[in-house]
Amino acid sequence: AFTPGDLEGDVRLRASVEALSTAAAAAFNAQVPDADGVYYQSFAGFSAPYGRAPEGQASLLEALCQNSDGRDGRLSFLGRHDYLATPLIPTAELVAEDPELPEDQSMPNDGLVAVASARWGAFRGCIPADHMEQLGQYQLPDTNVRTGFDVARFYANVAGDLAERGL
C-alpha cells in the first residue's frame, strides 16, 4: 500500500496511478485498437468490505452483470458477497464513487476495478471475488465457502471454453 505522501514524492508511482485513470484508459484505447481475429472476452469481479454490500446495490449489480447475451451473468453467486481483502478496502471505496449514480448508491467493484469498467469484448459476467482472490494471491481453499466461487475451476472452465472455440 502507499500513502498520499508517496504519490507526492514518487514521480514514477504517481505516473503509474495516473495511467490507470479513466481518461488515460480512454486515450490508450483510442491509440491501441483491438486486433483483427482476436477473441476478446471479459469478466468482472465484485466483493464488499466485511462481505456486506451497501443498501440498494443488489439491483445495480444484477443490471451491470448481465452478460453480452442479456442473461444474468452473476456466476457462482449464492447471494452472499465475498469478504473484500483488507488491503483493498481503501481503493474499493475510491472505485465505488461514481458521479453518475445517485448519492446513496455506490459502484460494485472488486477492490480495484469497477464492474462497469471491466467490460471488454464479449462480457461473460461477474464473479464473487475480489481482485486478489481472482489472481490467486491468497492461500485460500479452491472453493470460497462463503460464495461458492472456485478460482481454480473458474480458470479451468475459461481455458476449456477457449479450447472449444479453437483458440
* Cα-atom radius of gyration: 17 Å
- End-to-end span in angstroms? 37 Å
Topology pattern, helix = H, strand = E: HHHEHHEHH
Note the total helix count: 7
Helix/strand/pairing class, anyone?
A: mainly alpha
Number of domains: 2
Explain this structure to me?
- The protein folds into 2 domains: 1-33, no CATH class; 35-164, no CATH class.
- It has 167 residues and is mainly alpha-helical.
- The protein has helices spanning 4-9, 11-18, 22-31, 57-64, 89-96, 131-134, 151-164, and strands at 41-45, 122-127.
- The protein contains 7 helices and 2 strands; from the N terminus they run αααβααβαα.
- The longest helix is centred in the last third of the chain and has 14 residues, at 151-164.
- The chain has a two-stranded parallel ribbon.
Core attributes:
two-stranded parallel sheet, 2 domains, mainly alpha, single chain, globular, 167 residues, 7 helices
